[in-house]
Amino acid sequence: MLRFTKDHEWLRVDGDIATVGITPFAQEKLGDLVFIELPSVGATLDKGAVAATVESVKAAADVYAPVAGEVVAVNGRLAEQPGLVNAEPTGNGWLFKMKPADTSDVDDLLDEEAYNGLTAAA
Amino acid sequence: MGQPQSRVELKGTPLHASHVRLGARMVPFAGYEMPVQYSSGIVKEHLHTRAAAGLFDVSHMGQIALRPRSGRIVDAVRALEALLPGDVLGLAAGRQRYTTLTNGEGGILDDLMVSNHGDHLMLVVNAARKVVDETHLRSHLSQSCIVEPLLDRALVALQGPAAEAVLAALAPELRALRFMDVCSVALLDTTCSVSRSGYTGEDGFEISLAAEAAEVLWDALLHNPLVAPIGLGARDSLRLEAGLCLYGADLDETTTPVEAALEWTIAKGRRAGGERAGGFPGAQAILGQLVSGVARRRVGLRPEGRAPVRAGAPLFGSEGDPAPVGVVTSGGFAVSLNVPIAMGYVPPGAATPGTRIFTEIRGKRLAVIVSNLPFVPTRYKHR
């Protein structure tokens, strides 16, 4: 099940690992992405810290860590194919995986219905 | 990642409804609500313009007629030459030229196109500078000219290698235009003023016509499968590849034409020793810089890595220098080259192409190489 932040990140928990990306709404707003800066594997992030930067032709946007935790993997394909984030934002366009410090943080995130309500109003 | 909400009352161009119908994403720009991109997105729009033909609504730009009160064009020409360092006297009827209005310190009030229409001059100025320009022109030229902003005109640009074929289908005589020629021509029974010019580095045309006729021409051009509508996003990435300046980013009132590497717009005859030397605002500063040089120059920049370097990023002479020596004024991604590119100002000692300098992004020093402009060769039709 996908969880969401109001800043348009999504998070999917599988065991004790959470995969993070940006939402279809966010990639649509940003337009064609040309560069993705990812965190270092091993980095420890606070909840809400800048974890990655996604850049379109026009502008750069920060991606925040939805929960606190350690980065355990990054999507290496994005170095050559940043457009994957546009094409498959919740699939092959994932950004990084983290090990949440406290799994109860995940429960504080929005569910799909709440997130969709947020973007419908935007 | 939300969009900032503007409380400013925005104007629409005569083509506003067309943009909305085409599914454009509309954004505030210089007091107008303008299309930043259509449904295909900036990358496809950019590449389409380089491969076929892109259609741009640039009706937000200012179109100003200068009509000599005497009825003699030379009086408008002489009056305008007192406000800019270009050669307007040598501009034949049916020709257009790029130039800059300057202030007393030699700074650039605006960059613009001037064309000679036989009995009057036409200026095309930046949207964000319309008010400043009109005030400036009125205060200096009202004795000799009627300064007439054309508020009921649209301006559309058709740019790219297929532009000639597309427009010639409506008016075959347009094939004969060379780069920077202007002429009056009927397109779909509407009299238009067409110049062979643009802001993409491609061959192409800019078409000025009555606002009420704009939609018919716009729709007819889009009906050609070679033509796609292009928003301001790709307009910016195209002009940056072509090394063209954006007022407010690369040029402002504190930047002189010599600093901006626009000395080619300063006519021989207006330079020291020329037959009409000086006689424009800031002449002393600008002509002095032509002789003794400047403290900073606009250059092209190519980041070594993949990260785009944006306007405002500092430039450092070496990886460890604490103080910046320059600044990036335009930066983004060269869609045609698939690499980041930028322009900025550096001291003359760092302005030689090939010089390796540094910028700082998100706290990290990154190497950038000073490069020749344009990044993508221009394809103007000179003959």
Question: Can you tell me about this structure?
Answer:
The complex is a heterodimer of chains A (122) and B (383). By secondary structure, chain A is α+β, with helices and mostly antiparallel strands. Chain A contains four helices and nine strands; from the N terminus they run βββαβββββαβαα. Chain A has helices at residues 24-30, 84-87, 104-107, 112-121, and strands at residues 2-4, 9-14, 17-22, 33-37, 44-45, 50-56, 60-64, 69-74, 96-100. In chain A, the strands form two sheets. In chain A, strands 1-2-3-9-8-5 form a six-stranded antiparallel β-sheet. Chain A has a three-stranded antiparallel β-sheet with strand order 4-6-7, with no helix packed on it. The longest helix of chain A has 10 residues, at 112-121. The two termini of chain A are 23 Å apart. The mean pLDDT of chain A is 95. With 383 residues, chain B is an alpha+beta fold. Among the domains of chain B are: 16-59 and 152-241, Probable tRNA modification gtpase trme, domain 1 (Gyrase A, domain 2); 295-383, Aminomethyltransferase beta-barrel domains (Elongation Factor Tu (Ef-tu), domain 3, Beta Barrel), CATH 2.40.30.110. Chain B contains eight helices and 19 strands. Chain B has helices at 16-21, 42-51, 73-81, 130-141, 163-168, 214-223, 232-241, 283-292; strands spanning 25-29, 32-37, 53-57, 62-68, 96-102, 108-116, 121-125, 145-149, 153-159, 182-187, 190-195, 204-210, 227-229, 297-303, 314-316, 326-334, 339-346, 356-361, 364-371. In chain B, the strands form four sheets. Chain B has a six-stranded mixed β-sheet. Chain B has a six-stranded antiparallel β-barrel with strand order 14-17-16-15-18-19. A five-stranded antiparallel β-sheet of chain B has the order 5-6-7-4-8. In chain B, α2 (42-51) packs across α7. The longest helix of chain B is centred in the middle third of the chain and has 12 residues, at 130-141. Chain B starts with 15 loop residues before the first helix and ends in a 12-residue tail after the last strand. The model of chain B has no long low-confidence stretch (mean pLDDT 96).
